[in-house]
Structures are given as structure tokens and as C-alpha cells.
Amino acid sequence: PATLVDNWGREVKKWLGSERLQALCLQQSSAAKQTIMEFRHGCHQRMMITSYETLRKHAKELTGVFDLLVCDEGHRLKSVGGNKTIDALLSLGCSRRILLT
């Protein structure tokens, strides 16, 4: 959820420090597309934390960016017929996925 994006960012910093891994916390904003492009072509930040809502909106720009996808709140993805979030996650083209509940 969008409310937990910054919390996850703080947890990454707390446990791994900013020297070992810097996480980009992507929130919905007018600069999100530019931030994604910088993340895609940069090498400074290697982890992105975002909400399902932001991911759905920017799925096209995020396609092919990730080699590992970790989804929190996995119960939100539970759907027999699929949904827009599941479709967006599948469109990323990431074959390694972890689902947390």
C-alpha cells in the first residue's frame, strides 16, 4: 500500500544501511516518470519500493527493469479471474517473484 512505501524504505535503511543498498521510494507524483527513467538508466539505486497503484500507472515504463519482484500484502492479489494489478505485475516481465502475506 502507498502508506507503507516510506516505511519499507526506512526498514531497508535500518537493516542494511545506506552504504550497502539504497532504495528508491517511488510515490505517485508529477515527477514519477522522470524518476523511473533515472532509476532505469542509473546504477546508484538498486531497489525500488512502490505501491500497487503507482506500479499500475507506470507499468509500461517499468517493463524489463526488475530481475526480482517482491510483493507485500499478497492477499490483495488473490483473484480467480485476474485484475489490473496482477496484469501490471505480469507485464513487467520479471520471472523471479516473491509474495509476502
TrEMBL record:
GO biological process: double-strand break repair via homologous recombination; reciprocal meiotic recombination
Alphabetical list of InterPro entries matching this protein: Helicase_ATP-bd, P-loop_NTPase, SNF2-like_sf, SNF2_N, SNF2_RAD54_helicase_repair
GO cellular component: nucleus
Helicase ATP-binding domain segment(s): 1-101
GO molecular function annotation: ATP binding; DNA translocase activity
A Pfam family this chain is assigned to: SNF2-rel_dom
Protein name, per record: Helicase ATP-binding domain-containing protein
Species in which this protein is naturally found: Astrephomene gubernaculifera
